[in-house]
Amino acid sequence: MIQIIAITKENKQVCLSSIDQLKTVDYAWYWIDFNQPTTEETDQLDKKLKFHPLAIEDCIHSFQRPKLDYYDDYTFFITHSISREDLSKKEHDFFIGDQYIVTYHNQDSHEINQVWNRFNQTQHTNTWDQYRIFYEILDKIVDNYFPSIYEIEDELNDIENNTNDESTEVLLDKLFDIRHELLKLRHTINPIRDLFYRILNSSHLKGIQERKEYFADIYDHLLKLSEMVASNREITNDIRDNYLSINAHQTNEVMKVLTIITSIFAPLTFIVGIYGMNFANMPELNWQYGYFFILLSMGFIALMMYIWFKRKGWF
């Protein structure tokens, strides 16, 4: 689907149904949105808008790295938003010229829809231009990163406090899932942060330089997001190490108790083994009190070993 809003010289909005209609009137500027376009609609990027084949190829083949490319009379941008459900990336492409902005996305974009509806309902179009549209969309994209990170932080607090009294294995599984989600976020946020650094330091983008403080605010948000992702990954490392240490300590405690029990019973087993051989010339077997003496001896040995282990601090 292709949506078009054109702004006249008198700052009035006009909704158009075809790109060909843009040629009939000298508009101040216009916004074309390619929303999940068909193949025929995508072809208009080349046939009617005359964009560079490499830029069109980047639009068609999704999941390009965020970037900006300079062409003769326009600038091409690639950015990514994320899905709240699975943190998957959604690509947004922008063509910005002196009199237009063209947005292209193969999936429905909540951020672009928000800005489109807001712009379509505004009564003061004189404060809007193509760079204002660009800023509003990017601001929505970046702001929508924060809820996902806040949710991850809440999950980390639950894991750290173990509010549901879950086993270590379950907690570690959740922890590794969170680390995977943080990795997804890092692969999305950091490239866009680098893109904004280029945007802010570019001398070619005069429309952005005129609103540099607004785009710098988005860049600050991206720096904060990047730091939050990095700090949360460090927290997952600490929690993982703590749980592994606790698990190792518990295992050592169990092994220590089993070792002590084995050590106590080793000499008792030795005695039982000797008197279980049933040789004929074993005088103790014919002694009237031999059985009770052996039991007392075994009990005494076990008691002495227990006392010795206790003094060593093994209990």
Q: How would you describe this protein?
A:
The chain contains 10 helices and 7 strands. The chain has 315 residues and is of the alpha+beta class. Helix 6 (145-161) runs antiparallel to helix 7 (168-200), helix 6 packs parallel to helix 9 and helix 7 packs antiparallel against helix 9 (212-274). The model has no long low-confidence stretch (mean pLDDT 85). It is found in: Cell membrane; Membrane. It comes from Aquibacillus albus. The chain crosses the membrane at residues 257-277, 289-309. Keywords: Cell membrane, Ion transport, Magnesium, Membrane, Transmembrane, Transmembrane helix, Transport.
- For the record, give the distance between the C-alpha atoms at the N and C termini, rounded to a whole number: 75 Å
Structural class: alpha+beta
Rounded mean pLDDT score: 85
Strand order of the largest sheet: 2-1-3-7-6-5-4
